[in-house]
Design a protein that fits this description.
With 273 residues, the protein is α+β, with helices and mostly antiparallel strands. Helix content is 45%, strand content 17%. It has two domains: 106 residues, Winged helix-like DNA-binding domain superfamily/Winged helix DNA-binding domain (Arc Repressor Mutant, subunit A); 152 residues. This is Replication-relaxation family protein.
């Protein structure tokens, strides 16, 4: 406890931002943290290494047959203690913190979690570099599910502001582990949510362009399930050198891509299917 008290005296506002984001979103890579809080990769590497040495952060990566993997960062022992104290939660036992870190490092959903966090950190970076843009909200899966009574479980929720307008949206990040029929089946939950007057564009982010094309082929013929909803998609490769806020979104049954802020807004409450 004394170490945590001493460590918190040396934290900058940027360090506290990193602690808060990792508490909410669990794990971020070096590149993702750099986008959010640093202007230089070298500065980021030095500061993240120092916070790790102090126990505020913890990091892990896998040994690959060829090449190297970026560090994955999460909260370390002191970081968990400080966040718990700041939010008024009981401080977990050290063994529990270690178990959480190890479970995260070995989680089969790690790549999926990093994928959705990559999407949002790119939006965060865009907002950092363009004064007119703001990422107002960035919610993780568990917070969304709690707020809507488990009716849907999107991978993320965001609110983007730009050009004096704003758009709220749900994100479904797909890495090819579910059938297309299962993806289409998620529309029923979103329609039920829309009947309760919570109806935002649903954004599908695909890891592969071919998968995205197949999704559009199937979804375009499912008018009944889509009625009253706004659904659009992109592939992660489409914004690899750009921003997810740009003209990378293709609404279902449309021919032209649109910016995030220009996506069609769904009806307040769709008619029953």
């Amino acid at each position: 406890m004394a170490e945590a008290i001493d460590a918190q005296r040396h934290l900058t506002d940027r360090d506290r931002l990193l602690v808060r984001l990792l508490a909410e979103h669990r794990v971020l890579t070096t590149e993702q943290l750099t986008r959010v809080a640093f202007t230089s990769p070298i500065t980021a590497q030095h500061r993240l290494a120092r916070l790790t040495a102090r126990g505020v952060l913890a990091r892990f990566r896998r040994c690959l047959p060829q090449g190297s993997q970026s560090w994955r960062y999460t909260l370390g022992m002191l970081g968990v203690m400080m966040h718990a104290a700041r939010t008024g939660h009981p401080i977990p036992r050290p063994s529990r913190i270690t178990e959480t870190i190890l479970s995260l490092a070995e989680s089969p959903r790690l790549d999926h979690l990093l994928g959705i966090n990559d999407f949002f950190t790119r939006l965060y970076h865009d907002a950092n570099n363009h004064r007119e843009n703001v990422l107002v909200d960035w919610w993780p899966e568990r917070k969304i599910a709690e707020s809507v009574g488990e009716i849907v479980r999107p991978d993320g929720y965001g609110k983007w502001q730009g050009d004096t307008r704003s758009v709220s949206f749900f994100v479904e990040y797909d890495n090819g582990t579910e059938t297309l029929e299962r993806l289409i089946g998620k529309f029923e939950g979103y329609r039920n949510l829309a009947m309760a007057d919570i109806n935002h564009p649903i954004l599908f982010v695909f890891s592969e362009v071919k998968r995205q094309n197949n999704f559009h082929r199937v979804a375009s013929g499912r008018y009944r399930e889509l009625s009253g909803l706004s659904v659009a998609s992109t592939a992660a490769t489409d914004y690899a050198d750009a921003s997810p806020a740009g003209p990378v979104w293709l609404p279902v049954a449309a021919r032209e891509r649109r910016r995030l802020i220009d996506l069609p807004q769904p009806a307040a409450r769709p008619r029953a299917a």
